[in-house]
């Protein structure tokens, strides 16, 4: 996409990169391209990560550990030491004291810089050393040179690309790029925003009087403008995606009053909750429209999302379309298949199963059933997006735990629907399901183009799970609890984070733990399941556990999502401090599936990091999935919720969805006005900020 240019200005693509290299070095240009810096407009918004204050020299006596400082003094000793390893060691002294300098890797010219008797200036982070305060790998320059008059920016870089080269490239871009404002003056005035050009110049070249704290905390008006611009561009892109989807056509699945949905309702052995009924009605209304549904169904662990998906499926099937349900693991997909088969096969619905474990003959039979249209509901894993899978008429796709799929995988399944409906230029409806509730700030920022339904009540008869925090030094007590539960006819899980021994982490492993528990509990039937077992073995173990033939199941996180065994009332999570918060909540949701009082024991190893303490405290304090999601967002960021970690794309470079909620709300307000009254400005803004990212956000 072309850079923004002032009228009459010729394009200067890659000019900044060329000037940065001086001689046009292709190596420097390659490094710049690796950072996504191709044309002047890219360099302009490649903003500093932080700033170094090189404007003053401080006395050695005033330095504090953990803080960066710049000092000037005489080198009174310099030598290469060989204990415990080869390193360059020097002592610098000024009128107030002495400081050690150390380089673990150094070159001869660095050794010359710090020869005894020389007066030098050094900058770096001060830390505690063996003999007092020290700097490791400080930056060295000649003493007496003029000090900078402003803060020095430090940019995101890559191996082999120096800060000096980056600064040169960015300065070249600032001379050639178009810095005209993409926002109308009225909007800037309403939200008290400084101009884009002023914001960019301040951030790349902070004036001498600028507040260091405001820059570092990103509270300076220049940062406010940049964060507003970024959030506005994202919201504009999502609004465009929503508008584009409404211009597309989808099969209108109008058979809501058909016999099949009514038969499903009448055959259920339980009453739907009010929340389930409300959500079913919302989805049904979407499916009757002639543009594609794009709805997110969120509900806490055990809230009953599968039956909601079943009602959506029968509406599509009764309307003459196929339905595909894709789950991230074979265990979860198989559980969906069994549940849906039990509900729908008695009503005459034909189901097909597609997973990697099928034999060649079974796979061909499934392919044929899908292609002919005989299979009305197809359940499976990512096997659904194999090239050989061809649908007859796919009108609805359902993604369970949608954030666990890659962006490309989600799009691929949608395209299969488009191919099957291609002669009619139709797009399939899409329902995304997640047992990880999306916090409000995340829903507003990243899911603005989706309609969101929430199942906010659990089915009756569910007992809340009691959560206990126990140090692993009390393992014998935990074993006693397992024996008590099993003697009373109940079952238990014992979850471990790794399958094989890791010297780095030194964690308990599922294999070793299983062997030890078999020895410690000789009268108990102890099973083992983990991701490295063959699919048939995993299925056999889960069948035995559901049937009650296994008392204690030792497992990795393969049982994290979807496994439903109502008789399991106790879960022990080994090394709970190593798991993410959302993962712990999902695991805890495997118990408490029936009316039994259930317990989740989080067994941890000391000492605990601050993050681990926060996670365990959150698990102890609340069972509310929305509160868990909010805390997890604060700890880990939005990538886990969105399923985009593997994409390599940055979600937000400058704004924070946790601390910049007010700016996000203002950006949402501005979107409507910009699209309705200033379409030219809206397009300019998207070109500046969203180049090559619109499709990523729309997926």
From TrEMBL:
Catalytic activity: ATP + H2O = ADP + phosphate + H(+); Couples ATP hydrolysis with the unwinding of duplex DNA by translocating in the 3'-5' direction
Low complexity: compositionally biased ranges: 14-23
A Pfam match: RecG_dom3_C
Broadest EC class assigned to this enzyme: isomerase
Alphabetical keyword list: ATP-binding, DNA damage, DNA recombination, DNA repair, DNA-binding, Helicase, Hydrolase, Isomerase, Nucleotide-binding
SUPFAM superfamilies noted in UniProt: Nucleic acid-binding proteins, P-loop containing nucleoside triphosphate hydrolases
Oxidoreductase is among the record's keywords: no
UniProt record, GO biological process: DNA recombination; DNA repair
Gene3D superfamilies: Nucleic acid-binding proteins, P-loop containing nucleotide triphosphate hydrolases
Annotated Helicase C-terminal domain residues: 478-634
Domain Helicase ATP-binding: 286-455
Region annotated Disordered, chain positions: 1-23
EC number of the protein: 5.6.2.4
InterPro entries for this protein: ATP-dep_DNA_helicase_RecG (IPR004609), DEAD/DEAH_box_helicase_dom (IPR011545), Helicase_ATP-bd (IPR014001), Helicase_C-like (IPR001650), NA-bd_OB-fold (IPR012340), P-loop_NTPase (IPR027417), RecG/Mfd (IPR047112), RecG_dom3_C (IPR045562)
GO MF, one example: ATP binding
Family per similarity comment: Belongs to the helicase family. RecG subfamily.
Functional summary from the UniProt entry: Plays a critical role in recombination and DNA repair. Helps process Holliday junction intermediates to mature products by catalyzing branch migration. Has replication fork regression activity, unwinds stalled or blocked replication forks to make a HJ that can be resolved. Has a DNA unwinding activity characteristic of a DNA helicase with 3'-5' polarity.
Name this polypeptide is given: ATP-dependent DNA helicase RecG
Organism: Pollutimonas harenae
């Amino acid at each position: 996409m072309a850079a923004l240019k002032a009228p009459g200005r010729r394009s200067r693509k890659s000019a900044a990169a060329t000037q940065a290299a001086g001689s046009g070095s292709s190596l420097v240009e390659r490094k710049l391209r690796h950072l996504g810096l191709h044309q002047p407009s890219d360099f302009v918004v490649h903003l500093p990560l932080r700033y170094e204050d090189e404007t003053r020299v401080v006395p050695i006596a005033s330095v504090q550990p953990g803080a960066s400082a710049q000092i000037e003094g005489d080198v009174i000793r310099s030598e290469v030491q060989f204990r415990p390893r080869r390193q360059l060691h020097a002592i610098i002294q000024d009128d107030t004291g002495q400081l050690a300098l150390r380089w673990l890797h150094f070159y001869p010219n660095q050794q010359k810089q710090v020869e005894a008797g020389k007066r030098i200036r050094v900058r770096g982070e001060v830390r505690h050393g063996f003999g007092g305060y020290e700097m490791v790998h400080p930056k060295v320059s000649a003493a007496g040179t003029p000090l900078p008059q402003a803060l020095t920016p430090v940019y995101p870089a890559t191996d082999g690309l120096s800060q000096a080269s980056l600064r040169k490239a960015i300065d070249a871009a600032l001379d050639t790029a178009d810095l005209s404002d993409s926002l109308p003056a009225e909007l800037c005035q309403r939200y008290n925003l400084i101009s884009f050009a002023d914001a960019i110049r301040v951030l790349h070249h902070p004036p001498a009087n600028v507040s260091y704290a405001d820059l570092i905390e990103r509270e300076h008006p220049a940062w406010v403008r940049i964060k507003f611009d970024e959030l506005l561009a994202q919201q504009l892109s999502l609004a465009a995606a929503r508008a584009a989807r409404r211009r597309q056509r989808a099969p209108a699945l109008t058979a809501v009053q058909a016999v099949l949905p009514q038969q499903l309702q009448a055959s259920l052995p339980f009453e739907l909750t009010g929340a389930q009924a409300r959500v079913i009605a919302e989805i049904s209304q979407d499916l009757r429209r002639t543009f594609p549904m794009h709805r997110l169904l969120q509900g806490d662990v055990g809230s009953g999302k599968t039956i909601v998906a079943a009602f959506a499926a029968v509406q599509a099937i009764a309307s003459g379309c196929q339905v595909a349900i894709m789950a991230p693991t074979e265990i979860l997909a198989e559980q969906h298949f069994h549940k849906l088969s039990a509900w729908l096969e008695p009503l005459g619905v034909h189901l097909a199963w597609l997973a990697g474990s099928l034999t060649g003959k079974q796979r061909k039979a499934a392919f044929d059933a899908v292609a002919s249209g005989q299979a009305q509901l197809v359940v499976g894993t990512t096997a659904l997006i194999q090239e050989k899978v061809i649908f007859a008429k796919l009108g609805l796709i359902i993604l369970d735990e949608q954030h666990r799929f890659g962006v490309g995988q989600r799009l691929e399944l949608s395209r299969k629907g488009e191919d099957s409906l291609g002669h009619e230029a139709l797009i399939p409806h899409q329902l995304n399901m997640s047992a990880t509730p999306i916090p409000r700030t995340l829903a507003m920022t990243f899911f603005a183009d989706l309609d969101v339904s929430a199942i906010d009540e659990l089915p009756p008869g569910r007992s809340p799970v009691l959560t206990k925090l126990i140090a692993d030094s009390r393992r014998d007590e935990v074993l006693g609890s397992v024996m008590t539960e099993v003697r009373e006819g109940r079952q238990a899980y014992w979850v471990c984070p790794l399958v094989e021994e890791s010297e780095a982490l030194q964690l308990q492993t599922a294999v070793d733990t299983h062997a030890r528990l078999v020895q410690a509990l000789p009268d108990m039937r102890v099973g083992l399941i983990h991701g490295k077992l063959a699919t048939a073995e995993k299925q056999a173990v889960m069948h035995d556990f559901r049937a009650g033939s296994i008392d204690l199941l030792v497992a990795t996180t393969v049982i994290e999502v979807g496994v439903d065994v109502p008789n399991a009332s106790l879960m022990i999570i080994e090394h709970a401090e190593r798991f993410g918060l959302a993962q712990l909540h999902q695991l805890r949701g495997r118990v408490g599936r029936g009316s039994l009082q259930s317990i989740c024991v989080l067994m941890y190893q000391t000492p605990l990091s601050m993050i681990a303490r926060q996670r365990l405290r959150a698990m102890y304090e609340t069972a509310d999935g929305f509160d868990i999601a909010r805390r997890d967002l604060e700890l880990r960021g939005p990538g886990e919720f969105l399923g985009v970690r593997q994409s390599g794309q940055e979600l937000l470079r400058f704004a924070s969805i946790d601390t910049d909620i007010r700016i996000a709300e203002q950006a949402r307000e501005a979107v409507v006005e910009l699209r309705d009254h200033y379409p030219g400005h809206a397009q300019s803004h998207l070109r500046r900020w969203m180049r090559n990212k619109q499709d990523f956000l729309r997926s």
